[in-house]
Amino acid sequence: METLTPPQQFKSTVADLTAVPSRRQFTSLTVSESLRWPPAPEPALAPVARDRIRGWKRTLDWLLIVVALPLWLTLMLLMMGWIKAVSPGPIFYRQERVGFGGKSFRIFKFAA
After folding, report:
1. Contacts of 90 by beta carbon, 8 Å cutoff, 6+ apart
2. Is 109:95 a contact under the CB 8 Å cutoff?
3. pLDDT of 66-108, one tens digit each?
4. pTM over 0.85
5. Which residues, 6+ apart, have CB-to-CB distance to 106 below 8 Å?
6. Which residues fall within 8 angstroms of residue 19, CB to CB, at 6 or more apart?
7. Are 90 and 111 in contact (CB under 8 A)?
8. Angle at 47 between CA 42 and CA 50, to 5 degrees
């Protein structure tokens, strides 16, 4: 097998190369890791730890729903009362919109 040599015009050429990490790699780099390229792979979580994290995420989701839903419903009821007080028409109105592929659909909106 013969060894390939670069042409004479490329032997003295200097090139600066910059490697750009992906968005996930870039946002997860720390100062000490940013000096290493390529970054070290992240260790895989054990299945038990992964399930525990999923459980905490689900618990947090439900906790946020339980707290936010009454606040949101109170705000919506106040808006409905205000709209009814200042507007002679209905609280909601229907509007036709064009969606994906030109398919039309109906949307209900506050008449604010």
Report:
1. 111
2. yes
3. 999 999 999 999 999 998 898 888 888 899 999 999 999 999 9
4. no
5. 94, 95, 96, 97
6. 37
7. yes
8. 70
